[in-house]
Amino acid sequence: MAGVPADARICDAACGPGADIPALLAAAPDGHVTALDKAEGFVKQAQAAHGSDPRTTIFAGDMAAVTGPFDLIWCAGAVYFLGVRQALDAWKNALAPGGAVAFSQVCWFMDAPSQTAQEGWAEYADMTDEPGVLSAIDAAGYDVLGTRRLSDAAWEAYYGPMDARIAQLTPEAGPALAAVLQEGRDEAALWRNHRTEFGYTLFVVRPR
Ligand SMILES: C[S@@+](CC[C@H](N)C(=O)[O-])C[C@H]1O[C@@H](n2cnc3c(N)ncnc32)[C@H](O)[C@@H]1O
Fold it and tell me: Model-level pTM greater than 0.85?
């Protein structure tokens, strides 16, 4: 975010409930954040939390169809819905001259991850290692400005509150909610037990 001008036009692509909007506005206090997600429930939460700020526009929509122009497209934990190549292709025309894309992408951190880790990510058959993501970035015609792996502290900042919420909901949970809570427990356990094998890496990229 250090390279973002104070008046940047930022797109939060697949914003979820809008947790990143304050940080994006802090990086560009004179700018504007256009935030969208295809899940209406998340959009309503984001609107309730941040929609009164005149520096935001928040709506339900498809991140593959954003038009811009944006100085930065930020996409946290959602590029895999489109694929890295497809997302970067879709966003090229939505970037202002000099604009960049910053996204996080789940990657394998080793050549031979354990069977448990592979089973945990079985639904995401296209998952690659970091060189695989770099190849897709290059094939899409982008240069890499920087990369960084998400820290353990960042993961715990997500799973810690989730653990607490699961503990709060468990005593009263019916069968459907109990199944969802167990999925949450399993996901947190997968990361805690196998975090050297996979994780999210942040990539900041710009069209060549
Ligand atoms: C793991 S969540 C990440 C949400 C948010 N970026 C965050 O970090 O909290 C992935 C999000 O991608 C959204 N999503 C998936 N495909 C999308 C699409 N084509 N257009 C817009 N949003 C999409 C989902 O609805 C979900 O909110």
Answer: yes
